[in-house]
Design goal:
Elements (H helix, E strand, L loop, with lengths): L4 H31 L6 H4 L2 H20 L11 H25 L6 H31 L5 E6 L3 H11 L4 E7 L10 E3 L4 H7 L4 E4 L6 H13 L3 E4 L12 E5 L2 E5 L8 H37 L4 E7 L5 E7 L10 H4 L20 H8 L7 H7 L3 E3 L6 H4 L15 E3 L12 H14 L2 H17 L5
Parallel strand pairs: 1-2, 1-4, 2-3, 4-5, 10-11
Antiparallel strand pairs: 6-7, 8-9
Helix pairs in contact: 1-3, 1-5, 3-4, 4-5, 9-11, 9-12
Length: 466
């Protein structure tokens, strides 16, 4: 039961604010009374000015947590992602606090503020871990489960059914539909039975998953949910085209759901993205230069051909550029492509072949370890590519793109993206395009950081690379 979720959210917000507030005094005590005994007026630290500042800071951080959707059932959130977000938000808050103190010429010690960040982050993370433990304990005993009634028996309904039965916090009571679906268990009746079930059973949420339904019929279902205090959720027929964070605009009395828009994340994100690319490529080139030299020598000795292979690729908005790689194939590889086309192991315009005879012995190794991509750090430094972004396609591949596929060219191509961390060559062309379009919609600082961390694991295992 989650009827009191609003109250629970308010309690959690208040608890976080109080913990952050108390962290300031713990930090001051640790700095001045424990580690270094120092004559300091603790009454001054607890004066109205300091109390007001810390109070506003605590409320502000909780406001940021709320904006990031960190309150609610949190059924789909990962603990590691949540902890990382808290650490990052608190760090940004600390930097802002230090800037304000400096501007207003207020005395402060950096060590005290560091303790403040560490203690507040730790306490908030621990509070959330304890809350999760309590929730899991209650769920294991059958308490606090989210009761759901499903409407429909088609493909969308079945996909929801499969996700719901694997979610320990969800208690799926069954489904109403005009037709049975043997893969979804026993049917509770026709759709017209909804009001009766809502009246006689304790249902928290009704999920409507009907491919073809009269809008008035759906409206009647939503009205019935409102009468019996059940949450109404609709999975529309165009579900697969909706981004993970859709935006709703209003024109007069009409509500417009943005399912596709120009992926402009603003000047700030463009600046941050370019700064990340410059810093990352410079550091990468410096650290990887000995490895790049060794790879270049190995490639050169393999067959005497050039170490670097340049190839025309398509970048943002269809602009072509020269992309650099360590050569992993024999010199006549391009000329032999036509005769090998019949052995293509992926669908769509791309060409992939696991045992490609054009790949040299050294080429197999540098492809498996992704060392062949290192020269693209120069493309990134030049601004033609980015560290994270869809892989740059060949012009002949782009010539076969549909209008939908072209959407992946709305951002700069990159070294790594969702495709690389989802199986690479083991992923079908259609799924590859969907993953790239997903990045176009979700691009942002945390998305890029997540992909980079996952890329490290994929490179170490060499999964899907050939």
């Amino acid at each position: 039961m989650r009827k009191n979720q609003t109250l629970i959210n308010a309690i959690n917000r208040a608890a976080d604010a109080v913990l952050i507030f108390l962290s300031y005094f713990l930090a001051a005590y640790l700095r001045f009374d424990v580690l270094w005994v120092h004559e300091v007026n603790m009454q001054l630290l607890g004066g109205a000015k300091f109390l007001a500042a810390v109070g506003l800071y605590s409320v502000g951080l909780v406001g940021v947590y709320t904006a990031l959707r960190m309150y609610g059932t949190r059924r789909f959130a990962r603990v590691s992602r949540e902890a990382f977000t808290i650490l990052a938000v608190n760090a940004c808050g600390l930097i802002g606090l230090m800037a304000l103190l400096y501007l207003f010429k207020q005395d402060f010690t950096r060590l005290t503020l560091f303790f403040f960040w560490a203690i507040s982050s730790l306490l908030v993370i621990l509070r959330r871990m304890v809350t999760r433990m309590i929730q899991r304990k209650m769920l294991s005993k059958g308490y606090d489960k989210h009761t759901v009634l499903l409407i429909g028996s088609g493909e969308l309904a079945q996909r929801y059914f499969e996700a719901a039965v694997s979610d320990v916090s969800c208690d799926l009571k069954g489904y109403l539909a005009e037709q049975d679906n043997p893969d979804m268990g026993p049917r509770l009746g026709d759709v017209e039975k909804l009001s009766e079930l809502l009246q006689n059973r304790d249902i928290d949420e009704v999920v409507i998953a009907l491919r073809q339904a009269d809008p008035q019929q759906i409206g009647n279902m939503i009205a019935a949910c409102g009468r019996y205090s059940a949450k109404a959720s609709v999975i529309p027929a165009y579900n697969d085209f909706i981004p993970s964070l859709p935006q709703v605009e209003q024109m007069g009395t009409l509500k417009l759901m943005n399912v596709r828009s120009t992926p402009d994340k603003g000047i700030l994100w463009s600046f941050v993205k370019r700064l990340m690319d410059i810093c990352g490529s410079v550091i990468g080139l410096c650290l990887a230069s000995p490895i790049m030299l060794a790879v270049a020598i190995a490639v050169k000795k393999c067959d005497g051909g050039p170490a670097i292979f340049s190839q025309t690729r398509v970048g943002k908005n269809g602009r072509e550029f020269k992309m650099y790689k360590f050569r992993s194939m024999y010199i006549d590889a391009e000329a032999r492509l036509a005769e090998l086309q019949k052995f293509n192991e992926v669908d769509g315009p791309a060409f992939k072949m696991e045992n490609d005879p054009r790949i040299t012995k050294v080429g197999h190794f540098i492809r498996k370890t992704s060392l062949d991509e290192l020269p693209q750090l120069w493309n990134i430094l030049k601004g033609e590519m980015s560290i994270v972004g869809p892989r740059p396609p060949l012009p002949r591949e782009v010539a076969q793109y549909s209008d939908w596929d072209w959407g992946r060219l709305a951002v700069k191509p990159g070294l790594t993206c969702y495709w690389q961390v989802s199986g690479r060559s083991d992923v079908s062309f259609d799924d590859w395009m969907k993953l790239d379009l997903k990045y176009v919609e979700e691009q942002g600082f945390w998305t890029d950081v997540k992909i980079l961390f996952k890329t490290v694991g994929v490179v170490l295992t060499g999964k899907g690379a050939y």
